[in-house]
Structure formats: structure tokens, C-alpha cells
Amino acid sequence: MPLPRSSHWFDEYLDNVRKISTESWWFLLGTMFVSLAWLTFMLLFNLYMKERGYPEGVMGQVLSAQSFGTMAMAVPAAFLVSRLSARYALMLSSIGVALGFTWVTLVDAKGIIIAASFLAGAMVAFSRVYSSPFLMKYTSSSERSIVFSLSFAASLGSGLIAHLGAGTLHTYFTALSGSAVTAYRWVLWCGAGCGLFGALAFSRLPSGQISEWRVRTPVHQFLRTKGPLFFRLVFPSFLVGLGAGLIIPFLNLYFSDRFGLSTQTIGIYYAMVQGSMIVGVMLGPELARRYGMVRTIVISELSSLPFMAILAFTHDLTLATFAFLARGALMNLGVPIANNYLMERVGAEDRATANSMSLLAWTSSWAITTAVGGWMIEKYGYEPPLLAGCALYIISSGLYFYYFRNEEIYAGRMSPGIVDPE
């Protein structure tokens, strides 16, 4: 049964926030800066490539290379956790992302642009592999779901800043330089600089080794002993990644092509959706505490689908804007809860391996469908990838509920019948 709701849940929430460790706060700050770099790139890159005359199919190839880079580094990064501390791994990730994004803007050859995108994706793998085990180490069970949500909210909050700032800076730099392409480059360089500030924040993390991060279980042994559980945990997420890769990287082009919006206006829209996503993510821990993690994940995902369908068919800007905001808030509400659920279901000795394999599944799905999504948009428009994404989300939600309907976990406490791996 769900835990009874406390009339003082917000006070309890604030009390748990006060207990968050210094190491976690430095991690959150670094995450914000790296997210500024990443989300500035994601907002402007397609628009920059379009301004340079590249078709959507090429954009999809470049973004797909980024996912392939992350996929290629996911498992090696998991093995490096026993040799490379969080401080140096996350600093390397931040600097590598900054260099990759800068390199993309300095070359014209498609092959070299794809290589630069691959490098940036490979470097971000360290951040994603280390993040969840780091938070599991430096949080208690009572505050864990809050810290996971704060980590995700830090990324979203920096996205709000990035999207507002990037659009405004582009307008200013265009007037200053007289060239939209030059303005895009300058803003992308500003975003890359934020990655370097992230490296400075991560330099305050502990430099020593932490035993829980070590990959004590080889991948082949992990898959043999916990393969069925891991498949059930990750396959629904893989399907979501397939659907997301078809359309999410191209929503900036959607507003540009269908409604003729300027870069600054698109930045405002993306800032608005970041705000709606922050609200959703901050509500996640309370929903997971009351209704359970599994139900929260499934309901949030299914609730987003009508708004995705609206985006496919509407040509009314007001309706499209509302659907864009609602879809972003609902779909992303369950993301940190799903990450928390994965970490709770595997033992401490398997978390680095599980996290890297989960990242591998997610990025491989994006790598597969991002190139396909760009091709579909170039040939057929935005409706087919949006509707295909809806179908994949429905299948994912159904499977997740089918797999775990009797294995519910409430935030901060395991339900009867589930053994706490700690």
C-alpha cells in the first residue's frame, strides 16, 4: 500500500535537502555548467547546420555519431571507475565535451564534423556512467530520490538559462557580426566555455577511490547472473530511446520550419519547457513516495502521449506550444525516478556495471533512430516520426508495468517482497 501522506511533507523535503552532502552539491554545480554547454549545443546545432545549408539527413548523421560516441565509451568508462576517481573522470568529461563542441564549429568537412560530434559523445559517457553511483554513495536512503531529482532539475535549470541566453546572444551577435553563421559559432563557443567551468566545479570532488564504484562483476558474469532482471529494467528505456531519437533532437527545427520562429523565440520556447520540466521533476519524489516508483514512471509516460500526437497534427502555434510544454513536463517527470529504481534494484557492487550497460542501451537506441528521424523528416515531414515515437512509448509503458507491477518501490522504503540490495 502507498505510504500515508504527511501533512508536513514539504518540511520533510526541505529537511532532507539540508542534509545533502557537500560532495553532492559540488557535483550538482558541475552538472549545471556541463548542462549549459550541452543544451546550448542541442538548441543551436541544427539551426546552425541549417543556416550553413546542410539537410536534415546530415544533421541526423552528426547527432547519431554523438550517440555512437557515448555508446562506444560506456563500457570502458565503467571499467575505469576502479582506476580513475570521480574528480578526474568528470573533469575529463567536461573538458572533452567543450573541445568537441568547439571543434564542430571550426571545420566544414562533413566527416570531420561527425568525428567531432563522436568525440563529444564519447566524453559525456564518463559523466553519465559516474553520476548515479556517485549519488548513491553520497546520499542516504531518505534523501536519495530527492537528490536524484535535484540532479535532473539542475540540468533542466541550466537548460532554462542556456535557452534564454543562447537565443538572446544569437540576436546580439548577429547584429554585431552581420552574419547569422558567425553568431551561431560565437554562442556555441560560449556554451563550450561553460563546460570548462564545470571542470572547475568537479575539481572539488574527492580524489580517492571509492570501493562501491568498482566494477567487481565482469560484464559477462553480470549479464549471466542478473541478465533477466537487467533486461526488464532497461528494455523499456531502450524503446523510449528509440522513440525519442526519432523526433526530440529535431523539435527546434519543427518550430522553425512549421511556424517560422526565430532563433531567439525558439530559445524562449525551450526555456519555457525547461521550466515546466523542473516543476514536473520536483513533484516526482512526492509522487513516488505516495504511489510508488513504477506507477509514477508509467503514468507520467502515458500522460505525455496525447500532447505528442497534438504536435504531429496541429498547425496552430498556441496549441503546439501548450503540447510542447505539457509533453516535456510529463515525459521527463519519471526519468530520475527510473534511474533511482534501477540503482535500487541492483547491488552496490553491480551499480557501475548496471549504469554503464543502461547508458549503452539508451545511447544505442538514439544512435539507431536519430539518423532515421532526420531522414524521415527530410522525406516525409514531422508527422511520421512523432506518431512512431508515440507507438514506441506505449509499448514501453506497457512492458514496464507488466514487468514490475508486483515489484513496487516507494521512495525511501522498499515495499514487502523486495529485498533491499544494500
Task: Give me a quick take on this structure.
The protein is mostly helical. It has helices spanning 9-18, 22-51, 56-80, 86-106, 110-137, 144-177, 180-202, 219-247, 251-259, 263-291, 293-303, 305-313, 317-333, 335-345, 351-380, 383-404, and strands at residues 409-410, 413-414. It has a two-stranded antiparallel sheet with strand order 1-2.
* Corresponding CATH superfamily: MFS general substrate transporter like domains
Please outline the major beta sheet.
Answer: 2 strands, antiparallel
Q: List SSEs in N-to-C order.
A: HHHHHHHHHHHHHHHHEE
- The fold-level CATH name is Growth Hormone, Chain: A
Helix coverage percent: over 70%
Number of domains: 1
**Mean pLDDT across all amino acids:** 81
Uncertain stretches: 413-422
**Backbone structural class:** mainly alpha
CATH class wording? Mainly Alpha
Q: Describe the strand arrangement of the main beta sheet, using strand numbers.
A: 1-2
Q: Which outline best applies?
A: globular
Number of strands: 2
Task: Explain how this protein is built.
This protein has about 425 residues and is mostly helical. It has a single domain, classed as Growth Hormone, Chain: A (Up-down Bundle), CATH 1.20.1250. About 80% of the residues lie in helices and about 0% in strands. It is built from 16 helices and 2 strands. It has helices spanning about 10-20, 20-50, 55-80, 85-105, 110-135, 145-175, 180-200, 220-245, 250-260, 265-290, 295-305, 305-315, 315-335, 335-345, 350-380, 385-405, and strands spanning about 410, 415. Strands 1-2 form a two-stranded antiparallel sheet. Strand 1 and strand 2 form a beta hairpin. Helix 2 packs antiparallel against helix 7 and helix 11 (about 295-305) runs antiparallel to helix 13. The longest helix has about 35 residues, at about 145-175. It is globular. The two termini are about 20 Å apart. Mean pLDDT is about 80; it is low at about 415-420.
